[in-house]
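Q: what sequence does this backbone want?
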């Protein structure tokens, strides 16, 4: 079974490992600084039973120390291996024989060394885990913490935390050090339920952790620091499980290189690199992506508390005009609406705010709040009660004792109205009076950045109640067309570039209409074809394995008579001869009326499979980089959403004399194109349709190519 095929561990399967009633510490030690001693110290508050295992000791402190796992008085739920790599395998075998619920391996020196023998050693650990049904964390792992039961199974220094609040965040990280760095948010008031690090992930991985936390009642949101996985679709499935249970996964991905895009032959490859693929996949799974490491815990803590938004707008109230302006700037950058208050709300604001303030949104109550302390509360209450607002943003420019009363009052107002409050700590006393109260309040979130606050609000307001499913939906293209295209693609030479005419003929079987055209082998036959098609026409080079016609001057546009066609065809054929292109001819095409140019493309990502790209067409797709990426296939509904995310989406609604494009019809066409990519993912590496001319409900594919992959046999 490959990693991609392995089902997610269930909560029940990982319960004994991650929520153990008893823990066996193999390699327990009385030597200060030893991993075994550090783990024992961290486990001092554990609510279960801790057993020491080390044949060198009879006792450690006032506890007995057992010579082996077999000698323990009970079957261990979790076995912790604080031992050298050379003895890990026999200890794991002993744990499996004893029926342990799981194991954690700290030792390093496995696959991360890239040495073949160490890679094989790690593979044996994975095989043992699968054969014994004993989940294993690590190797090269720093450990885990379950704050609910105080099972701090790690040699790392520990963040301090009291009782786990209902709005706790679960931290999942491949990097142990960065995972525990995130958990240090507990030191200033963020509720943390778990810290789960995976190291080399020979068995239990990030996806398993997310799936576990999705079903764990102690966790309300999941903060995921992500590097990469061999089978990332498992993480998407885990995030879908979390979304189904009303929990948000917030992810920050490191290692976002685009090395795979450089070798792409079509426009698509440069637009759907690794980072674009991850972002598209995460969005489909309902994962909220943050671009900054510093935003991860703030955003996760926000989603752990915030209810679903009850309106589409946000209000800002501040005692500083400058802070209010800063908030308005960031709201505009992130597309967060700041609608003006209703008449009744404005009446309250005008009654409490001096004339040199602003009873608008953003609302500036001015420094007069110092002489009328209740004015800020009254204005905040009116804004939270206004049905136009889902949340209230409060920039806090000073950290001093009165702030605590305000934060508690705002939190109570949020609870009463079913809304939410975001406190922005716009002062440099980062943990000054009021910060902990804002962090730990149940109906408020604390941000130490105006930009990060509005980025989180934008994600919250835009988040659908149910993200589009990753599962395939209803097919739009008949199975007969799928089989026919599959057979034709099977005949292609591996790696061949299937030219424009043949590619468009294949797309036509999926209901994507192409331009009227004829092939010609000479200037005279080109002129004759143009006479039959009707002027004006376009003449293009048509040759095997030619990716980009314009690079050799192989296109002539808007030719109005036979003489122009003969001249254009002759020039193109001569250019082909100079370039050494064998078998070249020309395509004569009917000139397509003006419309909006759309680019459709797809490539087969090695991790996610088929990806679809939609953008503004022609050369602008490269110059403007206005494109969106998603996993194929997409439904018409998802395709319509892709169109809406284009920066130039308004061009679809009519621009400088062009007819408005029927977005529903275009979305249906995009969905059929995406089915082409998904149906034939094993036969193609890239496909490119650029441009598709769109006008009203009329669509014409003008140019296209398909890059064939290695055939995999008949399509059944």
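A:
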């Amino acid at each position: 079974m490959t990693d991609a095929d392995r089902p997610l561990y269930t909560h029940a399967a990982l319960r004994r490992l991650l929520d153990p009633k008893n823990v066996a510490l193999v390699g327990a030690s009385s030597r200060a600084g030893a991993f075994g001693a550090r783990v024992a110290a961290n486990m001092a508050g554990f609510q279960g039973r801790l057993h020491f295992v080390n044949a060198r000791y009879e006792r450690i402190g006032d506890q007995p120390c057992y010579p082996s796992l077999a000698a323990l008085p009970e079957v261990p739920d979790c076995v912790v291996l604080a031992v050298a790599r050379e003895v890990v395998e026999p200890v794991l075998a002993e744990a499996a024989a004893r029926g342990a619920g799981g194991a954690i391996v700290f030792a390093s020196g496995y696959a991360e060394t890239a040495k073949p023998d160490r890679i094989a050693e790690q593979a044996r650990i994975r095989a043992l885990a699968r054969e014994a049904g004993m989940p294993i964390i690590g190797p090269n792992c720093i450990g885990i913490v379950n704050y609910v039961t105080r099972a701090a199974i790690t040699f790392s220094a520990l963040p301090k935390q009291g009782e786990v609040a209902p709005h706790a965040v679960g931290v999942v990280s491949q990097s142990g050090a960065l995972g525990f760095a995130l958990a240090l948010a507990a030191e200033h008031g963020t509720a943390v339920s778990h810290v789960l690090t995976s190291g080399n992930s020979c068995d239990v991985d990030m996806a398993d952790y997310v799936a576990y936390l999705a079903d764990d009642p102690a966790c309300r949101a999941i903060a995921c620091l992500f590097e990469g996985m061999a089978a990332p679709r498992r993480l998407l499935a885990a995030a879908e499980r979390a979304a189904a249970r009303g929990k948000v996964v917030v992810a920050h991905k490191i290692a976002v290189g685009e090395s795979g895009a450089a070798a792409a032959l079509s426009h698509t490859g440069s637009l759907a690199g690794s980072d674009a693929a991850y972002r598209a996949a995460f969005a489909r799974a309902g994962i909220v992506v943050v671009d900054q490491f510093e935003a991860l815990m703030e955003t996760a803590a926000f989603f752990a508390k915030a209810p679903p938004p009850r309106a589409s707008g946000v209000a800002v109230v501040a005692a500083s005009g400058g802070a209010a302006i800063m908030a308005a700037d960031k709201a505009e950058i992130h597309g967060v609406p700041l609608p003006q208050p209703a008449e009744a709300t404005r009446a309250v604001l005008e009654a409490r705010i001096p004339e040199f303030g602003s009873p608008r949104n953003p609302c500036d109550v001015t420094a007069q709040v110092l002489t009328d302390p209740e004015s800020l509360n009254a204005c905040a209450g009116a804004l939270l009660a206004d049905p136009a607002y889902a949340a209230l943003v409060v920039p806090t420019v000073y950290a001093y004792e009165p702030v605590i009363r305000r934060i508690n009052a705002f939190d109570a107002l949020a609870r009463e109205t079913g809304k939410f409050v975001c406190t922005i700590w716009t002062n440099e006393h980062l943990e000054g009076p009021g910060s902990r109260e804002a962090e730990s309040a149940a109906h408020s979130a604390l941000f130490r950045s105006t930009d990060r606050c509005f980025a989180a609000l934008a994600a919250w307001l835009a988040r659908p109640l149910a993200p589009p499913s990753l599962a395939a939906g209803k097919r739009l293209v008949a199975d007969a067309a799928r089989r026919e295209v599959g057979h034709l693609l099977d005949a292609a030479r591996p790696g061949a570039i299937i030219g424009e005419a043949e590619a468009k003929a294949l797309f036509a079987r999926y209901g994507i209409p192409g331009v009227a055209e004829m092939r010609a082998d000479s200037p005279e036959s080109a002129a004759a074809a143009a006479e039959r098609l009707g002027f004006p026409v376009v003449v293009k080079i048509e040759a095997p394995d030619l990716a980009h016609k314009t690079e050799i001057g192989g296109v002539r546009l808007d030719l109005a008579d036979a003489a122009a066609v003969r001249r254009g065809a002759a020039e193109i054929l001569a250019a082909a001869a100079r370039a050494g292109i064998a078998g070249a001819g020309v395509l004569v095409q009917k000139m397509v009326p003006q419309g909006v140019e759309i680019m459709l493309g797809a490539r087969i990502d090695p991790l996610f499979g088929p990806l679809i790209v939609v953008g503004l067409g022609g050369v602008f797709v490269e110059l403007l980089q206005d494109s969106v990426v998603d996993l194929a296939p997409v439904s018409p509904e998802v395709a319509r959403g892709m169109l809406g995310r284009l920066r130039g989406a308004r061009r679809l609604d009519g621009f400088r004399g062009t007819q408005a494009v029927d977005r529903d019809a275009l979305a249906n066409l995009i969905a059929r194109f995406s089915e082409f990519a998904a149906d034939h993912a094993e036969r193609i590496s890239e496909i490119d349709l650029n441009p598709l001319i769109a006008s009203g409900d009329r669509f014409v594919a003008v140019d296209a190519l398909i890059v064939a992959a290695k055939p995999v046999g008949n399509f059944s």
